[in-house]
Amino acid sequence: PPLAHPASVEVMFTAFAVAVGHDGLNTAQAHAYARAMRAAPNTHERTLLEANLLAKLLDLRPGAAFADVGAWDGNYTLLLSRSVLPRGQAIATDQASRLNLIREAAARERLNLTVVEATADDAGLAPSSLDAILLRTSFHHHSRPASALAQFDAALRDGGRLLLVENAPQGTRNNRSASWRLCKDQAVEYEWAKEQEALARTGRSDAAANCTHAQELDAALHPLGAGMGISRDVVYHEARAAGFRLKAELSRWPTARFGGEYALLFLKPSGATPLAARRG
Description:
The protein is of the alpha/beta class. The chain has helices spanning 7-20, 27-39, 43-58, 75-81, 96-109, 145-155, 178-202, 207-221, 232-241, 275-279; strands at residues 65-69, 89-94, 114-117, 130-136, 156-167, 245-250, 261-267. Helix 1 (7-20) runs antiparallel to helix 2 and helix 7 (178-202) packs antiparallel against helix 8 (207-221). The N and C termini lie far apart (44 Å).
């Protein structure tokens, strides 16, 4: 197997992996995976199981190229990279402040990982270079989702896979629309700039006041609910508008760290005209 597991985890996963194949999950299979997750004795083994599931859904094979967008500490990128390296390519993208953490982790594991700085306007992915893209609980941070999806569309080869694992919103009507995400993003950037200005002027940061500002912003910008998350329908319609086709859906992601994670697997149709050209 591409990911090294302790024997106990491998035994639990084998029967499930045969049923899943590369086409997604039905309800019975999702329950089987959830049982395996609960039986795993610690967080490390649960993470290995989840990484193996991600690799299956992304159809990662030796020689393939994939990107983990919003990779955070690079943990999942490193695990998934074992499915494609050394002949393939594994890319981790995130903000500049997190890149050194990812590089250090890759060096410790002696893995040839490509680390790319991404911004709100530039995903840093070369055209037609990837077989798969993963966003694990990071899509809701994209305040310009149409632009981001257009870049993912351009970076994927025909038939490429886009897997979005997301948190259900906290708050019954909190759908995290594109316009709300942009407003929140701009407001947080404004507050951050003010905080940095105060730090430069006084030599100290008022963390308590800054936290209060953030809470007030969240309540003012969206009084119907706070916290992370984006509704399944918002993600689905945004991806469909970008030309992606839904391949599989898991209404409850087995790890469910925040009480309501789900996954949508999309395909870039073979022979599709690039999104920019379609809009032109």
